[in-house]
Every structure is written in structure tokens, then in C-alpha cells.
Amino acid sequence: MVTITDVSRRAGVSRSTVSRVVAGNGYVSETNRKAIEAAIVELGYRPNTLAQALRSNRSNVIGAVFVDVGTPYFANMTYGVQRAIRSAGKALMVSSGYADQDEEARAVIELIDHSCDGIILYLERPMRADVAELLRRSGIPVVSIGHKPGPVSRGQVMLDNFGGARAAMRHLLELGHRNIVHLSGQADYGDTIARRDGMVAALAEFGMDMGDLHIVGGEFHQNFGYSATLDLLDQQRVFTAIFAGDDDIAAGVLLALRERGVRVPEDVSVIGFDDAFHARHMWPPLTTVRQPMDTIGEAAARLLLELLARPDSGPLEAVIDTELVVRSSVAAPAMHREDA
Q: Could you give the strand order of the β-sheet that contains 269-271, starting from the edge strand earlier in sequence?
């Protein structure tokens, strides 16, 4: 097994110099650094991360709990976290909470048991009191993503869901839409609540309120968008636009409309929220609100790294902006096009 002594001999430097390069701290001349890096590659040296962790009292592992890492939404967020922590020499341990309080609790406890240096949480349910107490006792710094910080969070990253939904609704209203359907995700989710507040603000600008909007509640899933749209058509509901709670719902909407021969945007406009990868590849390409999930994850990781570097800092906060992306799925309603 190759040791740090073997590397120091090959590079012609002291063991302490090699240790500084491996640990990523302390000054080492560029010449010595290149020699050490070359020796590490030639010899195939792998540092003993367990021994390093014991000496530094750090595991060099960052934990994260997201709603469902199997979805593109949270996969992109995970990518952002990893991108930020890799340069700091940290590994990532990530788990799903599935918007279930007990599953979220189990995932958090697992991260505590693995002695993670810090934890990033995106939870949809209130944290159980016993789990919050475990986190307090552990002393592990926590950064929350979402509209409400956790009970032990010292950092928070928020997406401007309010501003994004307001911009999307305002876009529809400015084009002349008044018969608008909103297909909402889970009503008690923080994102859903913030987006409804944004829609209320936009409606108020036009002398309207939520009573002027037809809302159908469901889940952030394309199957809901598909079935809810078919129901609206079967009920002969009059509407000129559908504001989908996210792009997955919008995908189901577009499929249902296409199957029933309803033209988009000539007959009905469709707008989403997320700007997921497939949004621009739908037909027609989807007008939506862009939320940069990788940027959200990266921002949370950077706040956590700052808390680790400066334990007395906090509370820290970051707000990530959204952007309305106008594509081909939205147009003025037919009556306004005729008047023009």
C-alpha cells in the first residue's frame, strides 16, 4: 500500500509538505505542488480519509434530504450541491423524504448517525420535535431550502415563487385572458402557497381576485394535468388559458388538449412553472417560469460551507430569482386577436 512517505520520497519533499497538499491548506510552492501531484498520480496514492477525519474531527461529508431525488427537479438541486462542495473536498450523502414526516425524520437521523459535517434540508412537513432535539445536541449546522426555515436552521435559501407566479399570471392578464384555470400542486406545499400568493397579487393589479380564477387541486405530476384537463373539457368548462402548477402538470395538459383536438395557443394558452429540461421540447414549446434548481442547491451548499468555516456566523439567507421564459404556448385569446 502506497503511503504518504512514498509520495514524499518520490517528490523529494517532506511528509508535512505532502500533507499540506493533500489536506488543501497551508502554503506550498508551485514547483513542489506539481511534483507532489505528479508523484500521487504515478504511485496511485489514496489518502486515508478515515484517519484524516479522526484527526480533524470532521467527516468531510455533507448530508442532504430532498423530497425525491429520483425526479429531475431534485436531481438538478443535488447537482448544484455537489458542484459547490467538491471544491471544498467534501463528499455528499443524499436521501429522499417523500414529503412524509416520518420518512423525513428517518433520513435526517441517518445523516446525524453518519456524523455529517453539515446538513441541507428541503422538507415539506414540520420537523418532528425529537429529530429537532437530536440536531441541536449534535451541533451539526443546518441550512434549509424553502419558504420556512427549520427549527434548528442557521441558513435559509428561498426561491422567489411569489414573484415568479405573479409574473406568469400578469403575462396572461396583459394578453387579455380572463377565463383562466389554475391546476395546482399539493395545496399544503410551501411552493404552492407562495405561488398562489403571487397570483393573488397579479389579479389585484387588474381589479380581480381568486374568485375570478378556477382552481383545481391535485399533485405535481403529469397524470394530474392530463386527467384534470380532460375533466374540464368533458364539463364544457369555458377557459382560454391554463396556468399549470409546474411543467410536469403542463405536459399532461398539452397531451390532453392535443388528443381532443384543442389547439395551443390558438384555442387555449398553457403556461407552466420550473423550466425543466423538457419544457423547451414540448409542442408547442412551453412558456414557463424558470427556477434554477442547480443554483438553489449550490447556494445552500455555499451557505453551509460558510457556517462550517465560521461557526459563529449566521443566520444566513439567500433568495434566488425566477425568470419568465416566453415561448410559443401562450398567445392572446381569440377574441382579442380578432379585435386587433
A: 213-217, 180-184, 241-244, 269-271
Does the pLDDT at position 142 exceed 90? yes
Sign of the CA dihedral running 220, 222, 224, 226: positive
Distance in Å from the first CA to the final CA of the chain: 79
CA–CA gap between residue 134 and residue 150 (Å, rounded)? 13
Helix extents (H) in 116-189: 129-138, 161-174
For residues 286 and 244, give the distance between their C-alpha atoms in angstroms, rounded to a whole number. 11
pLDDT tens track for 150-195:
789 999 999 999 999 999 999 999 999 999 999 999 888 888 999 9
The alpha carbons of the chain give a radius of gyration, in whole angstroms, of 25
Residue range 125-137: mean pLDDT, rounded: 92
Domain annotation for the chain: domains and CATH numbers? 4-47 (1.10.260.40), 59-159+293-322 (3.40.50.2300), 161-291+325-339 (3.40.50.2300)
137 CB-side CA count, 13 A = 9
Which helix (H) or strand (E) element contains residue 271? Answer: strand 269-271
| Strand 91-96 relative to strand 61-66, pairing | parallel
Distance CA 262, CA 77 (A): 35
Is the backbone peptide bond immediately before 126 cis, with ω within 30 degrees of 0? no
The closest alpha carbon to 244, from 236, 256, 234, 259, belongs to 256
DSSP character at residue 127? P
Tallying the residues shown for the chain, one arrives at 340
pLDDT at site 52: 52
Q: What pTM was computed for the model?
A: 0.75
Q: Taking a C-beta distance cutoff of 8 angstroms, is the pair 150, 123 a contact? A: yes
Cβ proximity of 322 and 158 under 8 Å:
no
